[in-house]
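Input record, target 12 of the design panel.
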């Protein structure tokens, strides 16, 4: 969400997290056409629209995504043009750090580009939401291995000025209930705070287990926010990035 606001009204970075990140710390990732900003699809599927997009804005979004492509947005409540098919529309929550006991995780190892195949495999098994071949470039990713196998991870995604989103939180079914997710979230929060930034995150409102976990760690609800994915009109087949095709339905990655 970018663009028009009532003159003199301050926009909080988290009210437009995608646009704020792409105009700020993640500007080097930004692909722009007119008033539209987006990340490269190999990084993450998020795109920023103006508050009240005009026909030209939708045309620019379509040109960036390509015929049959997917446009995924958050913090946006306008309806798309009639010929754009809505493939996912759900309510999410945005949570911010108010009392997280951030600390390093003794088991955690720092993940890098060489670990991406393992990370993609873990994402395919656990389905935390979109994770692409270059998502690791967005920030710090930490993981836990057992018997040499990556079984849990968490990292960073959107970075509006002064903030960093914790994302990609997932644990293999074989190690759930051992506190690995909580430990990794605290460890990533520790990395974020060390830079002088504040952690935040998104989750699907319906994912009550994840929301309860984050609240128990010291995150609090800031606001409810919609997540919308729409299909660009056109004939080519849709390619939803990532190892799991249904990830477009889980854009509110925890």
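The sequence produced for target 12 reads:
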């Amino acid at each position: 969400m970018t663009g028009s606001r009532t003159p003199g009204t301050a926009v909080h970075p988290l009210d437009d997290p995608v646009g704020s990140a792409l105009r700020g710390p993640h500007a080097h990732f930004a692909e722009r056409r007119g008033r539209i900003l987006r990340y490269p699809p190999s990084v993450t599927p998020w795109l920023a629209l103006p508050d009240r997009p005009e026909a030209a804005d939708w045309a620019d979004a379509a040109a960036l995504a390509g015929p049959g492509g997917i446009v995924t947005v958050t913090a946006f409540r306008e309806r798309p043009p009639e010929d754009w098919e809505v493939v996912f529309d759900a309510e999410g929550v945005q949570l911010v750090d108010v009392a997280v006991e951030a600390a390093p995780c003794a088991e955690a190892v720092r993940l890098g580009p060489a670990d991406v195949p393992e990370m993609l495999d873990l994402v395919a098994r656990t389905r935390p939401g979109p994770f692409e071949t270059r998502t690791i470039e967005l920030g710090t990713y930490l993981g836990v291995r057992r018997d040499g196998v990556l079984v849990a991870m968490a990292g960073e995604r959107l970075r509006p000025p002064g903030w960093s989103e914790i994302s990609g939180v997932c644990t293999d079914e074989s190690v759930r209930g051992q506190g690995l997710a909580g430990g990794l979230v605290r460890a990533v929060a520790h990395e974020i705070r060390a830079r002088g930034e504040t952690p935040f995150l998104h989750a699907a409102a319906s994912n009550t287990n994840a929301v309860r976990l984050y609240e128990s760690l010291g995150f609090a609800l800031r606001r409810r926010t919609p997540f919308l994915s729409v299909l660009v009109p056109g004939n080519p087949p849709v390619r939803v990035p990532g190892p799991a095709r249904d990830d477009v339905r889980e854009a509110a990655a925890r």
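Residues 140 and 248 are 23 Å apart (CA to CA).
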